[in-house]
Amino acid sequence: xxxxxxxxxxxxxxxxxxxxxxxxxxxxxxxxxxWYRQLPSQGPEYVIHGLTxxxxxxxxxxxxxxxxxxxxxxxxxxxxxxxxxYYCILSVMTNTGNQFYFGTGTSLTVIx
Amino acid sequence: xxxxxxxxxxxxxxxxxxxxxxxSPRSGxxxxxxxxxxxxxxxxxxxxxxxxxxxxxxxxxxRFSAQQFPDLHSELNLSSLELGDSAxxxxxxxxxxxxGETNTGELFFGEGSRLTVL
Lengths: 112, 118
What we know:
- The structure holds 2 protein chains of 2 kinds.
- By secondary structure, chain A is an all-beta fold.
- Chain A contains no helices and 10 strands.
- Chain A starts with 8 loop residues before the first strand and ends with a strand.
- The mean pLDDT of chain A is 90.
- By secondary structure, chain B is mostly beta strands.
- Helix content of chain B is 0%, strand content 51%.
- In chain B, strands 2, 4, 5, 6, 9, 10 and 11 form a 7-stranded mixed β-sheet that branches.
- The relative contact order of chain B is 0.32.
- Chains A and B meet through β4, β8 and β9 of A and β5, β6 and β10 of B.
């Protein structure tokens, strides 16, 4: 039961902005939206998270739709080091705790 | 370096065998999560422990079990191994509130244990 939907792959030119979309139409009011990325041969690493408002940090920006059914991770200037699989995740509270549901991810290729 | 240590990094074994994967969380993190990553299924949540107690369960097979010890390290036991169990197994840790809620927080992942079942 996939909770998020992402494109399988995307390409970007180096030093251009990248917009990575994610659909999460079954999101509930208490679910947080997280983004992680996984570089080759490494474990996933945190990028950003948010609930309702747009969020910015040193790595990226997160734009959340008003109805919260979709979000977009924005990398302002893609570098070769940004080539990775980007996961859009919902953090869902259950009666036994919270679970992080990973989608299938978007493989980002950065073209020099 | 995330601060999460997983051992062994690589493991090759035969079908029917049993293996134990170990995870040491970041200092001070009370929650430990286990994930399985195979080529065709992405990252699948297996189980979460908080301060020694099982907190949440995902798609974990009955042949698999886990526990978190008083020093907060965790072990994932995989038994009666099948070819389809070949995968990368990740451990992640996080800071949790007293109630075990971490949905606002960050997961720190180890580098994974690659299991190959022949």
